[in-house]
What does this fold into?
Amino acid sequence: MNKWIAKPQSEWARNKMNLLGSERVPFAFLIDFLSEQPVVLPLSQCQNNGLYFIFPNASIVPPIQAALPDAPVFHPKPSKFADYKKGYKTVMQNLTHGNSYLTNYTISTRVITNYSPETLFGRLNSKYQVLYQSNFICFSPETFITIHDNTIRSFPMKGTIDASVPNAEHSLRNNPKEIAEHNTITDLIRNDLNQVAQKVAVSRAKFIDTIEAQGRKLLQMSSEVSGSLPKGWQGQIGDILYKLLPAGSICGAPKEKTVEIILDSESHSRGYYTGVFGVFDGQTVDSCVLIRFLEQTHKGIFFYKSGGGITIRSEIDSEFEEANKKVYVPVV
It folds into this structure.
């Protein structure tokens, strides 16, 4: 097991998922970036523990939806460029020395808002929504893994451009930095799946999704990697997940060294941001990467965490701009 998550909490979560899966008990799992506070709950216990979600084929929602404010406020206070540059320099030094080929570097942005996680939940335009104990709301577009009919699939998502840019899709598909980043993560995910599955291959390469982002649209590039699992995989769900964690798209390659670089370069704790959340319904698994993430501290202060992949070809100005552009809430 990967050494940065080989700890008692991880062992507990892994074993509980294996047990519930072997008994075909539907459950949800919430695993933070470093697996320091994993949560594994039968679906019947989610509501009592303040864990809610809206997935394409399943949901658990609060009995009463909180009201939106009459005059919504959402004002990010962008990070200082000097602060961003400090961590970016550490990342780039490691890239230059060959310690990493791609590093996902993230920032934490203070947000002045009268929204709350409860008021936003259920009102966001997103494939996945997760709400946990008023601590955070996540509205992720990115699937981590799915398992259906003994086939495991992952969907690495790397490469973003504003859809309003002239010839946006062509520009995205032909940007050397974005293509290199995407290919690196796709190869990483393929290698990860080879640890748990057979006949692993890229099923679909570089398809484009459109994502709504506060009055504008973003284009994001994804690929699909799939493989075959043996019968009885339900009793090994925890083993499968922990062999794949942390998600390659939000750390980089090579994974173990790049996580060390992330911890050395970022000035904030990621917590549940860039972790994973998923649901086993008794037969299938669906899960997402916890990106597009607004959290609330115990003092009621809001922070939005965002970032992007850094390669040797990256330019600091455009990377800083991309990280800040991702600070939004797509209220419908």
In short: The mean pLDDT is 92.
